[in-house]
UniProtKB/TrEMBL annotation:
Keyword line: Amino-acid biosynthesis, Aminotransferase, Histidine biosynthesis, Pyridoxal phosphate, Transferase
Domain Aminotransferase class I/classII large: 31-351
Protein name: Histidinol-phosphate aminotransferase
Catalytic activity: L-histidinol phosphate + 2-oxoglutarate = 3-(imidazol-4-yl)-2-oxopropyl phosphate + L-glutamate
EC code(s) of this entry: 2.6.1.9
A GO BP annotation: L-histidine biosynthetic process
Biological or metabolic pathway of the protein: Amino-acid biosynthesis; L-histidine biosynthesis; L-histidine from 5-phospho-alpha-D-ribose 1-diphosphate: step 7/9
Species this protein is from: Halolamina pelagica
Cofactors: pyridoxal 5'-phosphate
InterPro entries linked to this entry: Aminotrans_II_pyridoxalP_BS, Aminotransferase_I/II_large, HisP_aminotrans, HistidinolP_aminotransfase, PyrdxlP-dep_Trfase, PyrdxlP-dep_Trfase_major, PyrdxlP-dep_Trfase_small
Molecular-function GO terms, alphabetical: histidinol-phosphate transaminase activity; pyridoxal phosphate binding
């Protein structure tokens, strides 16, 4: 027998892992600089690491109180009711919960192109029909209400990403409001703020009071440095009170992840340091890379290098892993995550060598 027809489904293409690349190159993983997955180069808050260690003693028990505790802390942080906080295994898990809550078979979903592939993947798992709106490179990938509304045709769910992955651009608050006002009442606008901590733009979460067709996604994977634990959440309309219990996978967020997230929330200094360090690295790449870059408010920079796959491969040969953006439909670009100062300097130096080599006429 076979699974159902998966021919329209696509695979998630992750940035390559350090161990994998080190093995290929015959190098020590310690010698590699991995700037391909937008992870926090400073790791997690030490308090979160301690919380994981402490949680180890209780792993035989299903997580319950920790889930309630994290939900309560997040509700307080955002000034919402606990019913409005949907904790899941990563923001990806929360996207699945939104798909389960929203989609009937064949319901259309509108996603950005280029954009984060999991929106479409999740919609397809849930028998949705995926359409896209284009962000234009010529226009610095600008995101306005009209960018979306020009192609919007009554879709059930519309995704926007701010700051956007892989472009780094933000969507202004007024534009998000114009989008919320411009779609049908029965269309949910999901604003994915996976990189929200790194941006000046305030969170769209403040709009949840005024609009009941908005959901906001946040994660502990990026600024909080907990990508390996898989913990994130959606903030949802007040009217959805009893939906979470009906769509969430029981105990999908682990005790260790929940406890680490609670500890990470309390360590504001670690988040601040991570945000400042990313801002420094962004500037450094903008100023010193010998290739055009796009303005970013996230912890990565999109760079136009001509042949993204050739540049990424050559850099990898020298121990610097960056993300080739072909899988995003941007074959001319690479995405460079913000590293520590040392990592960022080394990455830029390596990329500049690679760019010079690739440009040099063949001997
Ligand atoms: C990283 C990322 C996420 C999800 O992260 P999780 O690790 O699942 O929390 C969501 N959206 C975008 C745009 C991302 O880049």
């Amino acid at each position: 027998m076979q699974p159902r027809d998966l021919s329209a489904h696509v695979e998630y293409v992750p940035g390559r892992g350090v161990e994998e690349v080190a093995r290929d190159l015959g190098l020590d993983p310690e010698e590699l600089v991995k700037l391909s997955s937008n992870e926090n180069p400073h790791g997690a808050s030490p308090a979160a690491v301690d919380a994981v260690r402490d949680a180890a003693a209780d792993v035989s028990v299903y997580p319950k109180a920790a889930h309630t505790d994290l939900t309560a802390e997040l509700a307080e942080k955002w000034g919402l009711s606990t019913d409005q906080v949907w904790v899941g295994p990563g923001a990806d898990g929360a996207i699945d919960y939104l798909s389960r809550a929203m989609l009937d078979p064949d319901d259309p979903v509108l996603v950005p192109d280029p954009g984060f592939s999991y929106y479409g993947m999740s919609a397809r798992y849930h028998h949705g029909d995926v359409r896209s709106y284009a962000l234009s490179k010529a226009d610095q990938f600008a995101m306005t209400a009209d960018t979306v509304l020009d192609v919007y045709d009554g879709e059930r769910v519309v995704f926007v990403t701010s700051p956007h992955n892989p472009t780094g651009a933000t969507m202004a608050r007024e534009e998000i409001e114009a989008l919320l006002a411009g779609v049908d009442e029965e269309t949910l606008v999901v604003v994915d703020e996976a990189y929200g901590e790194f941006a000046e733009e305030p969170s769209a979460a403040a709009l949840l009071d005024g609009y009941d067709n908005l959901a906001v996604l946040r994660t502990f994977s990026k600024a909080y440095g907990l990508a390996g634990l898989r913990i994130g959440y959606a903030l949802v309309p007040e009217a959805w009170a009893d939906a979470y219990a009906k769509v969430s996978t029981p105990f999908a967020a682990s005790e260790a992840a929940l406890r680490a997230a609670i500890a990470a929330l309390d360590d504001e200094a670690h988040v601040e340091k991570s945000v400042e360090s990313a801002a420094w690295a962004r500037e450094y790449v903008h100023e010193h890379l010998d290739a055009p870059t796009f303005d970013s408010e996230a912890n990565f920079v999109l760079c136009e290098v001509g042949d993204g796959s050739a540049v990424a491969e050559a850099a990898q040969g020298q121990g610097v892993i960056v993300r080739d953006c072909s899988s995003f439909g941007l074959p001319g670009c690479i995405r460079v995550s913000c590293g520590t100062e040392d990592e960022t300097r080394r990455a830029v130096e390596t990329l500049n060598d690679v760019l010079a080599d690739l440009e040099a006429p063949e001997a």
